[in-house]
Amino acid sequence: MTTSLIDDYKRHNVDSLKSVRGMTRTQLWDAGINDIDASLFLRLAKVYWESGHARIDEARAAARARNHGLRVLEKIENLAQKSDRPNDLRVILCGTFEGELEKVAAKHITKPKPVNEASVAFGKDGRNRLIVRSDEGWLMDFINSLPGVDDGGLEAVYEGLKQHARGKMGLAAPRKMLHIIVPLPVMAQLIQGNTEDIKVRALDGTWRTGEEIMAELLEGIGLATFVNARNKPVKQYRLQRYFSAAQKELAAAVQHVCQDPECHRPFNLLQADHLVAWSKGGETNIDNILMLCEYHNMKKRDGDVYYKDAEGRFWKRRKFGPDLPCTNN
Ligand SMILES: [Zn+2]
To answer: Which phi and psi (to 5°) does residue 76 adopt?
Structure first.
């Protein structure tokens, strides 16, 4: 005689657990139950028939009505335990269709507020761990000023921390980023090479002549954002000859993180890329710059497609499902 796996499986619900109530793991093993199933039975029998949780009668009735199987009850328990009030959430979830469990649970589970913190953990193998989580600017300033990191990349963080901690190397002075906002009429003069008569005030309150601005930009000291009368950043393609190195910084005015919809890598890890290739007539201006991290830039070369719609918003094309808006939209 063949027994149907499906029928057999469906037969087991919250009431089946009653038959293992009070059993120990060893007893279950002796009865020929494998350890994975034994863990499941023990856990659920305890919840539904042994512990006498508040509202467990209601949970059982609801689970019975939905005829939830044991694996679904396990999922419900996992979700319920994430709540401050697992007994209440259990009742709700037992009365919920399996496919809706996560969605319903999410409404009742309050995520802890993110806190800035540092924690230290000690590894058994002697490898200890320091984890710092912070949304405050000092952390990236500190990391970026570590020896080796200031002019290299984040791979140098470990060695940089070590050298700094041993007192062999001080921190580099925080990079001072001169930021100049250049209005359009001034830009027109700069383009014409008329740099002597121009004076522009930088964000640190100091004044610069057009000549000084150009010199600093060429040395990569600062960045300039060209704005129209409404303070909106505008094109700079005719300044390409001055700004090839500053092109990326110019884009910082509008694209601070990797523009891939699912990426959050910060600006200093990004590469400027032409949305429409330079060779295909794409101009070097803000409208045509897409800031991507190295990974997403590579994926773009491998065939990922980003495009701009008629309203100027960037999108990422997807093979399946609707296209996703890029981060900065
Ligand atoms: Zn990215």
So the answer is: -60, -40
